[in-house]
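I have been asked to look over a protein record a colleague put together. The record follows directly below this note.
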Amino acid sequence: MRLARFESDYALAEAMKVNRSTVLRVRAGSLRPGPAFIGGALTALAPMVFDDLFEIVSYRS
């Protein structure tokens, strides 16, 4: 977020076209990012790519 020069979670959420609360919950780890969040992040935070922004974690059931 800082590298892309977004001043606030609100500014980032607006650029991603998602709710501010969604950004806060994903960043806090209480919500897994869905397709709209991932797509918005890739658009708003370009030229960063998926591997720069996200970590794939395997969960065993």
Summary: The chain has a mean pLDDT of 92.
